Amino acid sequence: MLETIQITADYLINQTTLKPVVGIILGTGLGGLVEEIEIEKSISYEEIPNFPVSTVEGHSGRLIFGTINNTPILAMQGRFHYYEGYDMKEVTFPVRVMKQMGIETLFVSNASGGLNPDYVVGDIMVINDHINMFGDNPLIGRNNNKLGPRFPDMSEPYSKRLIAEALMIGNDNGIDLKQGVYVGTTGPTFETPAEYKMFRILGADAVGMSTVPEVIVARHMDMQCFGISIITDSGVPGQIVEVSHEEVQEVAAAAEPKMTMVIKELLGRI
């Protein structure tokens, strides 16, 4: 696996002289952040050795080298999901590659269902913790100590410093950022009312189908993480209505400018 990671990392390093310090994974309907990037190089996933290919509408499938707010970044416009049939190591492979390229900080974004009754559709939640309900873990199997420890600590999955900075940015710009716990599930079905209720009882504020595997692998390699969710539908009893992927994309796109502002400002403080 290490050899495969190195082959991909070497390929990408040779594509540009830019040295990214932050990796960004853009979720469903959240590709608009790309408009803020001063693009140095854009590469389709199909061109990258050993890279999976995104099959989900709303995930463009390209890797972008560039700068945001003078910070060199590497952005994934489109991620890979467990429900697409990829295994956990394939889902998290790009994060391994980022670390091998010298990237020490990972930003992840997603669209999620709101479980906290204080949230409304369109709210933005900074993730301060997560619950893994995938029934799987990307670290299962023989551990390579060159990548990280057998039993990585998860007492701070999301950087407290970056969370504090983000909340300050929101306050300074009149953006009402929530913060809470994200629960990750396999999908691809949206949750039943009973499942929404169970996740809320477990302590989750939002639910989605991504993010958790990537953050586990990032923390395994001692990368600091920042996660942010756009609440695109409600799982609160009495507010649950039929929802489609297209509607999720529309809500995410409408709320995205605020999320983009927060990420842009935060990148300037790395």
UniProtKB/TrEMBL annotation:
Pfam families: PNP_UDP_1
Family listed: Belongs to the PNP/MTAP phosphorylase family.
Pathway: Purine metabolism; purine nucleoside salvage
SUPFAM superfamilies, sorted: Purine and uridine phosphorylases (SSF53167)
EC number: 2.4.2.1
Protein purpose: The purine nucleoside phosphorylases catalyze the phosphorolytic breakdown of the N-glycosidic bond in the beta-(deoxy)ribonucleoside molecules, with the formation of the corresponding free purine bases and pentose-1-phosphate.
Gene Ontology MF, one: purine-nucleoside phosphorylase activity
Name of the protein in question: Purine nucleoside phosphorylase
Domain of life where this protein originates: Bacteria
Domain Nucleoside phosphorylase span(s) in chain numbering: 22-267
